[in-house]
Design a protein that fits this description.
CATH superfamily of the largest domain: DNA ligase/mRNA capping enzyme
CATH architecture of the largest domain: 2-Layer Sandwich
Radius of gyration: 21 Å
Shape: globular
Number of helices: 5
Helix content: 10-25%
Number of strands: 20
Number of domains: 2
Strand content: 25-35%
């Protein structure tokens, strides 16, 4: 029986796999350019949220991944794996670091995400967290793989100024014979609306649309867009409701988002966490307990335990209610501090 981990399933259109076209190998006659200093760290390019695909020909589409954003720095004498916040997590992904050493390039910076796939080939954020021992855990993940979608530095040259299509061409060539722990995020060709619909039918989180002519620009500047089938955002945990019948004694978590400079209550979540999650949460939240409510709250206070706004939870939800509360919310896991996940901000 094969021991290969499941890959993401191809999106279907009229029952035929939608795949990217074959690429030409890199031209060995490229002119030799002066070497550029290798950046210690690059602030990542971030995707803006859109309700639907942009629908213009200059965009390429990829499956939206549900993992930890990382950058792999391949240097002459070492490998560094940095989180979005700039923390060194090389020791937490030994299989990915070992695979990076085998890529056959002296220097490079790869942008991508560490993920764990479920039995259906979908990326599973909760499974990734558990492979690392949970929030604040000290375990190294042997199950995670790195899905690379951009190349920022290559063979002594800073390539961020090149257009995305050319950077991905170099990246695909670099990963042609890569070990299984590092994979290339393939482009999905076709109409954006059809690709998005297929992604949702197959239970994926959504798609990413990227301007194929764009340079790599750090920040959320509109070169990349994310279109989600199911909304998933990060919210601050500000307390919990006690329950004698619920596992771990937590009936639901109370959540908040930024509204200007203050936190505003956006509802609660009482599903999605297993017994181990609930026990871990109870231990963490009880250490952060406070008598003062961090947010304005008009619900019943009898069984509420307020907490200092420190923990950030990833929450999946279907929509917003008319009064600004989360609808059909489900807990996915706690974000790690080093992941530097942005707490959702309510637009005024």
């Amino acid at each position: 029986m094969s021991s290969r981990r499941p890959r993401s399933q191809p999106l279907l259109a009229d029952d035929a796999p939608v795949r990217s076209r074959a690429r030409k190998p890199r031209d060995p006659k490229q002119p030799q350019l002066p070497f550029d200093a290798m950046p210690e760290r690059v602030e990542p390019c971030l995707a803006q949220l859109r309700p639907k695909p942009p629908g213009r020909d200059r965009y390429l589409y990829e499956v939206k991944l549900d993992g930890y954003r990382l950058a792999i720095h391949i240097e002459p004498k070492r490998i560094r794996i940095l989180t979005r916040g700039g923390h060194d997590w090389t020791h937490r992904f030994p299989a990915i670091a070992a695979a990076a050493k085998e890529l056959g390039v002296a220097t490079a910076i790869l942008d991508g995400e560490a993920v764990v796939h479920d039995a259906e080939g979908r990326t599973d954020f909760g499974a990734l967290q558990q492979s690392l021992g949970g929030r604040g855990g000290k375990r190294s993940s042997s199950e995670a793989i790195f899905v690379a979608f951009d190349l920022l530095y290559f063979d002594g040259h800073d390539v961020r100024g090149m257009e995305l299509a050319s950077r991905r061409h170099l990246l695909e060539s670099l990963l042609a014979d890569a070990p299984e722990a590092i994979q290339f995020s393939e482009e999905i060709e076709g109409d954006g609306d059809a690709i998005f619909e297929a992604a949702c039918v197959h239970g994926l989180e959504g798609i990413i649309a990227k301007d194929r002519d764009s340079a790599y620009r750090s920040g959320r500047l509109g070169d990349w867009y994310k279109i989600k089938c199911i909304q998933s955002e990060s919210f601050m945990v500000v307390g919990y409701e006690r329950s004698a019948s619920a596992r771990g004694g937590i009936g639901s978590l109370l959540l908040a988002a930024w509204s200007g400079h203050d936190l505003g209550y956006v509802g609660s979540v009482g599903t999605g966490f297993k017994e181990r999650d609930a026990q871990e949460l109870r231990g963490l939240l009880d250490k952060l307990a406070t008598k003062k409510a961090p947010v304005a709250y008009e619900g019943r206070r009898k069984n509420v335990v307020w907490c200092q706004p420190t923990l950030v939870a990833e929450i999946e939800f279907r929509a917003w209610t008319h009064d600004g509360k989360l609808r059909h919310a489900a807990y996915k896991g706690l974000r790690d501090v080093q992941d530097n996940a942005a707490v959702y901000r309510i637009e005024s």
